[in-house]
Design brief:
- This protein is α/β, with parallel strands linked by helices.
- The chain folds into 2 domains: about 60-310 and about 330-355 and about 365-400 and about 430-445, no CATH class; about 480-665, 3-Layer(bba) Sandwich (Glucose Oxidase, domain 1), CATH 3.50.30.50.
- The protein is built from 25 helices and 12 strands.
- The protein has helices at about 5-25, 30-45, 50-85, 85-95, 100-115, 120-135, 140-160, 165-170, 175-200, 215-220, 230-250, 260-265, 270-285, 290-305, 305-325, 330-340, 345-360, 360-380, 385-395, 405-415, 415-445, 550, 570, 590-595, 620-625, and strands at about 460, 480-485, 495-500, 510, 530-540, 545, 560-565, 585, 600-605, 630, 640-650, 660-665.
- A 7-stranded mixed beta barrel has the order 4-10-9-7-5-11-12. A two-stranded antiparallel ribbon has the order 2-3. It has a two-stranded parallel ribbon with strand order 6-8.
- A hairpin with a 7-residue loop joins strand 11 and strand 12 (about 660-665).
- Helix 18 (about 360-380) packs antiparallel against helix 19 (about 385-395).
- The longest helix is centred in the N-terminal third of the chain and has 36 residues, at about 50-85.
- It is elongated, with a radius of gyration of 29 Å.
- Residues about 215-220 and about 450-455 have low confidence and may be disordered.
């Protein structure tokens, strides 16, 4: 059995273990994820300390962003609930749609109200309204309730800045404004199919008990005067407006524009939600005559229930990191690349399998996005925004008895388990399948069309060091550089003709495996695949000389297929000066991390990646031994840290260990 097959088997067993622990042994999902993550790491051959560290890094990496989003969104939802803002949106839209189309109004209400809050929170905000409408109109709770949960569920999985959807946006590095626009195009018809249309068909087939205890407790009117519809709607949509504005600014304004920088700051997810929350303290708080003490109490009360949600999200991130560092992510990527499967279908399938296995849409989105993101990065033409939607749709499919939402719907609607399977489970499955279908349709327009009309030099930055015998540094002991004119028109000759003498490792160049590996491939046999594609520039502080594993883990390099290090050499312009021995280098333990993570190319901004005077060339041996070419001598002064497209092509010199190269990058 090949190593990749073994890793895939371990991953399958890990997911199976999650099912058993959660569904059979009733173990809390957080605990189950911790146990399975560490067990997978150990089974895959990771040192136990490394498995623990990977899990910790995964939890911290996810919660560092999501915890803030969840907290701000939950407080915003609480302000809407306590002020009557959610009820105002609902009653206004219901009056607009009319009683015959009240189920359509409920779907739209859920779509709007659900944007800043988790599914369970939005459900609790709106279920009293559903009970009240059902009592007043005499309509079945199924006909009104299914559109409610359909609208909330679609938003939960697909529409940023909802916290769950933001997980996938972060993993795929998607543009949030485009994702919101696409999510609305896909989400509304999906919610319509699974909500009002399906509810109209299923209602005559479901007979509910006449008495509903939860309806008795929660239905009724509030005596507090509700805020205005316009102000409430503006408050809930404010973060969406700010994030869309940032996306428009990125397209319309130059990268050096101060206005664009300001809009990008305000339109970043955390700042946008913060602005909306602060505004809600006035629009839904002080204007509704709440005191500062009451608003503080609302904020405190709503944060407690998010603890379990955050722990599960964090553990899902830890599981995802262990999957990646154990090599499972690369094994899945290799399998997917070999099968030529559509990344959209792959993302949906992986998310659906994890959803069915664990019962958690959030865990499904977190884990599947982490697995599929490296695959998508390696497939030309992948659309990150559509991948968010496909992952979200897959994470919602086939909710059953291992999903907390299943039991929430069952109890509040007073249904039996078979009735819940016929209504809620079918509605969720319709969302998953229809969401994928509409996403694939949208991909015919948005996914296949290139973002630039044609290939041109626009945006490309030359990061090749200029070869100049007077200035280019020569590694100690390497061949000297000499350029001569054999003929020169400036001296009266009929043409200009030059002769160059230099070492294979002069200036910007590529080391092939043959450089330090017996029987390694020469430079003319290095494949194009690692030399062309997405790359991430990592900024290393001037004070750091040894880029070791500890330093590497401080930076966001996971998931990148090609990694370029911008170090003190760029900051000090050393590629234009005499040879320096104290250049920054990649330590062997960091080289091992890069190789194990599936990186296909490593680049540095000085003429060697190895420590000067090292007793053995371990960094080269580790990387080149894995077939990973090393680009040395890059001039990264014109670029900053971030994601780029990279093209670096060496001279095709037959049978030798390296050659000078030309390298260009373009901001992604």
């Amino acid at each position: 059995m090949s190593p990749n097959t073994l890793l895939l088997l371990y991953a399958f067993l890990a997911v199976l273990a999650l099912i058993v622990l959660i569904a059979v042994f009733k173990l809390h999902p957080f605990v189950a994820l911790v146990v399975v993550s560490l067990g997978l790491g150990a089974a895959a051959g990771m040192p136990l300390s490394t498995a623990v560290k990977a899990f910790q890094d995964g939890v911290g990496g996810v919660l560092g962003f999501v915890a803030v989003v969840v907290a701000l969104g939950t407080m915003l939802g609480k302000m809407m609930a306590e002020s009557g803002g959610a009820a105002r949106i609902a009653t206004t839209l219901i009056a607009l749609f009319g009683e015959r189309r009240v189920h359509w109004a409920i779907m739209v209400v859920a779509f709007l109200v659900g944007i800043p809050v988790f599914f369970q929170v939005g459900f609790m905000l709106l279920i009293p309204l559903v009970f009240t409408i059902a009592r007043r109109s005499g309509l079945s709770l199924v006909k009104i309730g299914i559109p409610l949960v359909a609208g909330l569920s679609v938003v939960h999985g697909m529409v940023p800045p909802h916290p769950a959807a933001m997980l996938a946006v972060q993993a795929y590095r998607a543009d949030i404004g485009r994702t919101i626009a696409y999510a609305i195009l896909v989400g509304l018809p999906t919610a319509a199919l699974a909500g009002p249309i399906f509810a109209t068909w299923i209602t005559p087939r479901i007979q509910l008990p006449t008495h509903n205890p939860m309806a008795t407790q929660l239905s009724g009117d509030t005596s507090r005067e509700m805020p205005s519809f316009g102000l409430t709607l503006f408050t809930v949509l404010l973060p969406v407006i700010l994030m869309l504005a940032a996306s428009v600014a990125d397209v319309a304004l130059d990268t050096t524009s101060a206005i664009r920088a300001a809009i990008d700051f305000v339109g970043s997810p955390i700042v946008a939600l913060l602005v909306a929350l602060l505004f809600s303290f006035w629009s839904l708080g002080y204007r509704q005559h709440f005191t500062r003490g009451q608003i503080l109490k609302f904020a405190n009360d709503c944060l407690g229930p998010t603890a379990t949600i955050l722990l599960v999200i964090g553990a899902g991130g830890g599981f995802n990191r262990v999957l990646l560092e154990s090599g499972v992510g690369k094994a899945v990527a290799d399998l997917a690349l070999g099968s030529h499967a559509s990344p959209l279908v792959l993302a949906w399938t992986v998310a659906a399998l994890i959803r069915v296995a664990t019962g958690s849409a959030t865990v499904a989105m977190t884990t599947s996005a982490g697995i599929v993101a490296p695959i998508a990065a390696a497939i030309p033409g992948s659309n990150a925004e559509l991948l968010v939607l496909a992952t979200g749709a897959g994470s919602l499919v086939l909710s059953h008895v291992n999903d907390a939402g299943f039991w929430l719907i069952k109890e509040f609607f007073n249904m039996t388990v078979p009735q819940t399977l016929k209504t809620w489970t079918v509605a969720e499955t319709i969302i998953g399948i229809a969401g994928l279908g509409f996403t694939l349709l949208l991909s015919l327009v948005a996914g296949c069309a290139p973002r630039e009309p044609e290939l041109s030099a626009q945006g490309w930055i030359d990061v090749t060091a200029t070869l100049d015998p007077a200035r280019t540094p020569i590694y100690e002991g390497d061949a000297p550089m000499r350029f001569d004119f054999l003929k020169n028109m400036k001296q009266g000759d009929k043409l200009t003709l030059s002769a160059y003498s230099l070492g294979a490792h002069s200036g910007t160049h590529i080391d092939a495996p043959m450089h330090f590996i017996a029987n390694g491939a020469p430079i003319d046999e290095v494949a194009l695949e690692p030399l062309i594609g997405a790359a991430r520039v990592i900024a290393i502080p001037d004070s750091v000389q040894a880029i070791d594993a500890a330093e590497l883990t401080k930076h966001d390099w996971r998931g990148a297929r090609r990694v370029l290090f911008r170090t003190r050499s760029s900051l000090r312009s050393w590629m234009d000066s005499a040879f320096h021995k104290d250049f920054a280098y990649i330590a062997p333990d960091a080289a091992q991390l890069l190789a194990d993570a599936g990186v296909v190319l490593v680049g540095v901004d000085y003429i060697s990646a190895e420590q000067f005077g090292a007793a053995a060339p371990r960094t080269h041996q580790i990387l080149l031994g894995r077939g990973i070419p090393i680009v040395e001598g890059l001039d990264l002064r014109p670029v900053q840290a971030g994601d780029y497209d990279l093209i670096v092509l060496p001279l095709k010199v037959k049978g030798h260990e390296g050659a000078p190269a030309r390298a260009i990058v373009r901001k992604r």
